[in-house]
């Protein structure tokens, strides 16, 4: 009886979340798969059209390139921030962590609009550079890939910092001290002793940023101005502008499969369960 009661209690706790997951995620995803294979006619026509389209290929290349560069930028900046918090800001750690988490309390839309104010032709950055005499004409800092990358790195940075910070705070300083006591330089101690221990956090942060960047929509749409057409924006155009539900759904399926492949490949190198727990 006690074991039966435990099972009943377990399913009573799981069923509400499972029901929401099935109704609001799994069923809509299955609906997208159905549309991809049935609209406007049953078969693989949408996928053939997608494979033959140069615009789709270009959009996928842009998507993976922007996601990769965003990931690299977030890892470099995030590693510096996480290292500084975990090693040099002991008294200020709560404040620094709060500053890292603070962007989560602000809408992505608002943060993206703030970059429009900063990077526009009459924005704060161009005005400051002109007044300083560094440039004569405003620089083109948005409606191109540069503006999209700057804004996306800013939006995605906390997702890189938090896993690396969690990993770094669990590393004992004894190992580095032992290396220094044996005659290793500060750089050698960092490179050969400290950095290898931070790789799980680095890989976790890279996975989170890259996967989230693949399907990002708001920031590329606003900062790209239609010139940096990532696959999520291309899907929106197909469905909203051209009412081409079949091709739009096929593109969604392709993006979902690509993301799943990235996760499967990454699972060989990264503990995905630990990554999700660190994110929470």
From TrEMBL:
<feature type="transmembrane region" description="Helical">
    <location>
        <begin position="243"/>
        <end position="270"/>
    </location>
</feature>
<keyword id="KW-1003">Cell membrane</keyword>
<feature type="transmembrane region" description="Helical">
    <location>
        <begin position="97"/>
        <end position="118"/>
    </location>
</feature>
<feature type="transmembrane region" description="Helical">
    <location>
        <begin position="12"/>
        <end position="33"/>
    </location>
</feature>
<keyword id="KW-0812">Transmembrane</keyword>
<dbReference type="Pfam" id="PF00528">
    <property type="entry name" value="BPD_transp_1"/>
</dbReference>
<dbReference type="GO" id="GO:0055085">
    <property type="term" value="P:transmembrane transport"/>
</dbReference>
<comment type="similarity">
    <text>Belongs to the binding-protein-dependent transport system permease family. CysTW subfamily.</text>
</comment>
<feature type="domain" description="ABC transmembrane type-1">
    <location>
        <begin position="60"/>
        <end position="266"/>
    </location>
</feature>
<keyword id="KW-1133">Transmembrane helix</keyword>
<dbReference type="GO" id="GO:0005886">
    <property type="term" value="C:plasma membrane"/>
</dbReference>
<keyword id="KW-0813">Transport</keyword>
<keyword id="KW-0472">Membrane</keyword>
<feature type="transmembrane region" description="Helical">
    <location>
        <begin position="146"/>
        <end position="165"/>
    </location>
</feature>
<feature type="transmembrane region" description="Helical">
    <location>
        <begin position="62"/>
        <end position="85"/>
    </location>
</feature>
<feature type="transmembrane region" description="Helical">
    <location>
        <begin position="201"/>
        <end position="223"/>
    </location>
</feature>
<protein>
    <submittedName>
        <fullName>ABC transporter permease</fullName>
    </submittedName>
</protein>
<dbReference type="InterPro" id="IPR035906">
    <property type="entry name" value="MetI-like_sf"/>
</dbReference>
<dbReference type="InterPro" id="IPR000515">
    <property type="entry name" value="MetI-like"/>
</dbReference>
């Amino acid at each position: 009886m006690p074991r039966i009661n435990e099972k009943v209690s377990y399913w009573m706790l799981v069923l509400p979340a499972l029901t929401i997951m099935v109704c609001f995620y799994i069923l809509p995803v299955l609906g997208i798969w159905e549309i991809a294979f049935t609209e406007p006619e049953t078969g693989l026509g949408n996928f053939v059209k997608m494979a033959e389209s140069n615009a789709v290929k270009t959009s996928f290349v842009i998507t993976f390139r922007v996601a990769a560069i965003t990931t690299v930028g977030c890892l470099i900046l995030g590693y510096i921030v996480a290292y500084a918090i975990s090693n040099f800001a002991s008294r200020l750690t709560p404040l620094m962590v709060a500053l890292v988490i603070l962007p989560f309390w602000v809408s992505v839309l608002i943060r993206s609009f703030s970059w429009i104010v900063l990077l526009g032709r009459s924005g704060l950055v161009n005005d400051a550079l002109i007044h300083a005499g560094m440039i004569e004409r405003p620089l083109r800092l948005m409606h191109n890939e540069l503006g999209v990358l700057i804004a996306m790195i800013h939006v995605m940075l906390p997702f890189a910092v938090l896993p690396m910070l969690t990993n770094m705070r669990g590393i004992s300083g004894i190992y580095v001290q032992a290396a220094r006591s044996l005659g290793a330089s500060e750089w050698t101690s960092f490179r050969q002793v400290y950095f290898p221990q931070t790789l799980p956090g680095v890989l976790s942060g890279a996975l989170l940023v890259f996967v989230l960047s693949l399907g990002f929509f708001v920031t590329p749409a606003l900062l790209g101005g239609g010139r940096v057409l990532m696959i999520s924006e291309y899907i929106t155009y197909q469905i909203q502008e051209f009412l081409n539900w079949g091709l739009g759904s096929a593109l969604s399926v392709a993006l979902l499969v690509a993301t799943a492949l990235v996760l499967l490949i990454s699972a060989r190198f990264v503990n995905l369960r630990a990554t999700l727990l660190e994110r929470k």
